[in-house]
Design brief:
By secondary structure, this protein is mainly alpha-helical. It is built from nine helices and three strands. The longest helix is centred in the middle third of the chain and has 25 residues.
Length: 212
């Protein structure tokens, strides 16, 4: 974890991990006090993290009742992927055009790293790489509105993947790596195609869940 993160950012990352890895169960209710004690933090950073997670629809805050972890559904995943597809394609297109030399080097490093953590079956590292990849893409696109538009979509679809992945299926790390490499090359068409391939993979996962 980055030591430069604020307490609320650390609380956000830890709470997201707890949701993704089902330490906090879908449908269950929790109190700020419970979460603060679990993370050994004060109520203020927990409250700030929960506000961010609520905006991303990862939690639902019920005044005077507590915090609920919403259930996920195939239908909602398919709907959000319809919106995520064109937004992410445009983001990678602009990133391929606008990324600096330093950002391109970082993309190559992230591409290698995410493949490595997938090979080692390191879910926590994979999650951290996903966060870094998404952040670098929107930074490289140089349009702050992508952060506001894409972050909830990425977070929710990420949660669906973690909750519904099968151990014997293809890991998406190579798809994320291909996006990074194409953007780093300045290959706009290749980056868009790679982005669409990732969304195709996520759509297929959702549809397979629906068929079970």
């Amino acid at each position: 974890m980055d030591n430069d993160l604020s307490l609320s950012d650390r609380a956000y990352e830890q709470l997201e991990c707890m949701i993704l890895f089902e330490e906090l169960k879908g449908g269950a209710m929790y109190s700020e006090k419970q979460l603060a004690e679990s993370l050994q933090m004060g109520r203020t950073p927990i409250r700030e993290a929960l506000q961010k997670l609520a905006w991303e629809q990862m939690v639902v805050i019920h005044p005077r009742r507590g915090i609920q972890i919403p259930e996920v559904s195939v239908e909602s995943q398919l709907k959000l992927l319809e919106v995520r597809r064109p937004l992410e394609a445009e983001c990678v297109r602009l990133a391929a055009q606008r990324a600096t030399a330093e950002q391109k080097k970082a993309m190559e490093k992230l591409a290698d790293g995410i493949i490595g953590c997938a090979e080692n079956n390191d879910d926590s590292a994979f999650l951290n790489y996903l966060r870094d990849i998404h952040q670098l893409l929107v930074n490289s696109a140089r349009n702050d509105y992508f952060i506001k538009a894409m972050r909830p979509l990425q977070g929710l679809s990420r949660r669906f993947w973690f909750l519904n992945r099968e151990p014997d299926t293809v890991h998406p790390a190579s798809l994320h790596a291909e996006i990074m490499r194409r953007v780093a090359m300045g290959d706009t068409i290749g980056a868009i195609n790679a982005s669409n391939s990732l969304i195709d993979y996520l759509v297929q996962q959702a549809k397979e869940k629906l068929e079970r």
